[in-house]
Fold:
Amino acid sequence: MVVIGGGFGGLAVTQALKRADVHVTLVDRSNHFLFTPLLYQVAMAGLAPAEIASPTRSLLRHQANARVLLAEVTEVDLVAREVHTRETRPLAYDYLVLAPGSTNAYFGHDEWVNVAPGLKDLDDAVEIRRRVLLAFEAAERETDEAARRRHLTFVVIGGGPTGVELAGAIAELATFVLARDFRSIRPDSTRVILVEGSESVLTSFGPELSARALESLRAMGVEVRPKTRVTNIDARGVECGGERIDASTVLWAAGVRAAPLGASLGVPVDKQGRIVVEQDCSIPGHPEVFCIGDAALFVPAGEEQPLPGVSPVAMQQGRFVAKKIARQVDRQPSAQTFKYLDKGIMATIGRSRAVARIGRIRLSGFIAWIAWLLLHIVYLIDFRNRVLVLIDWAWSYFTYQRGSRLITGHRLHAGTPGDQLDRQGEPVPDKPLNGLPRVGHDTA
Structure:
């Protein structure tokens, strides 16, 4: 069998087949498994990239029936039962599991990709860290007050968990961490604006927790603007609600779409590119092909809303599909319906601030933050990573220090494109990486 994508779903299905009589080929364009719930911590200089990522080959080194291929999938031939990649010969399969993940969705404005990066992988996180830190550096050396205000204005678009976490982390970074390291920057001069199109932030958590999250953000100094639509983003800021906000750093957390692989298969997909799957996660008309995680549109029987694109869904679907395939190989009856066990959702807002919904239990504040911290430590794949993350968090909590404040990358000017000005005062275009424009990509 072939598994496309080495994220939560792909890794779960591969590891669950450890004792099955199958040969598994895991194909991914990255050589590491990424713990995406902590990706914002890398973007905000709280953790190093290696602390939330583990080499896929290392995780599967004791699984004799699994191999890993570092390759990019270009086509899946459902009729011939072959997977085509740029780097290898066609891979034949008896069973196929699609778990390519998702990418950022700009709702028809792909020109915003370079001026408002999203957060989907380590490259995004390092790029966001670079832009945020360089914005403070530019403000420190700036003598013009208007230009300094622009450098110290950060706009986060999207009030979901990622947007809330980014906005809160930037506010803390400016107030408690970087303020001690600079001489010309005052903490109260940093402006963090969170723009959300719906009624409030974290709407999926329910009205009570949404209100508490909103209160916490505002207490941290974040300007939250609900029911506000963004109409344009450029190198100098954002236009929304008829207002122009000058900002050198704009971050995108407003939406995602499925990896483009699904739309190329000729099977039914929704507006977000997710493959419509059966109750056993298989693709209609192809019982040997399964789709799980962010790339799948799974609507439980008797319900109207599909399952959310979160890691617990992908992991549970992966284990379900693995068990189904193993039983089919052994010619035993298998379950026909996947049932998701909702263990709750959590989001952190800042130091000692979080919200959590666990069944009927609603938590907020410090106790929710402790629950969030412990849960994420437990689910980190590598034991070494757990120890390092725990040490880093303890150090950051008691000292207000961030140990990963490194500015890396080929572009050395601050913030988004246009932070350097030519002699006429016009923005200098952003330099591409390796001669190519930077675009978003999926995990497959």
Remarks:
- The two ends are 16 Å apart (CA to CA).
- The domain at 2-29+71-104+256-329 is CATH 3.50.50.60 (FAD/NAD(P)-binding domain).
